[in-house]
Design goal:
The protein is mainly alpha-helical. The protein contains 6 helices and 2 strands; from the N terminus they run E-E-H-H-H-H-H-H. A two-stranded antiparallel sheet has the order 1-2.
Length: about 130
């Protein structure tokens, strides 16, 4: 049996941008097909970039430090991308319910670490600008 490479299921129409609906599924083993109206599920709404993040997150067993290294991104960027995936799947994040207090708390933490000499001014600026870029 030969292995065929399957393309990912598109979620948006390339012509009008509307949401696509799965209406036919096919078994290549027995050549059976089923037609109807099927849901792609919550994960069908993820973009290719979100899928890449999810695959990396799973491969790293959810260890944010490992995700940072694998994707060469900062901790705040990992958290931001994770929250984006969570929202796309239809769930609320702690950031959604906490409002700006999370950003304010992080900013205070960075400034406290700078004041205590635990990080340099350059590192503090990088961390604070990282929040603004996201």
């Amino acid at each position: 049996m030969s292995i065929r490479r399957l393309n990912p299921l598109p979620s948006q129409c390339p012509v009008c941008g509307g949401e696509l609906e799965v209406v036919r599924v096919h078994c290549p083993t027995c050549d059976s097909s089923i037609e109807g109206h099927f849901s792609a599920g919550r994960f069908g709404n993820l973009t290719p970039q979100q899928w890449h993040f999810v695959e990396t997150f799973i491969r790293c067993k959810g260890k944010i430090k490992d995700v940072e290294v694998a994707l060469d991104i900062s901790y705040p960027t990992v958290v931001s991308r994770l929250n984006d995936v969570i929202r796309t799947l239809g769930f609320e994040t702690a950031d959604d319910t906490a409002g700006t207090s999370v950003a304010d708390e992080k900013r205070r933490d960075v400034l406290d670490r700078l004041n205590q000499g635990k990080i340099s001014a350059k590192d503090a600026l990088r961390l604070l600008e990282g929040d603004a870029a996201e």
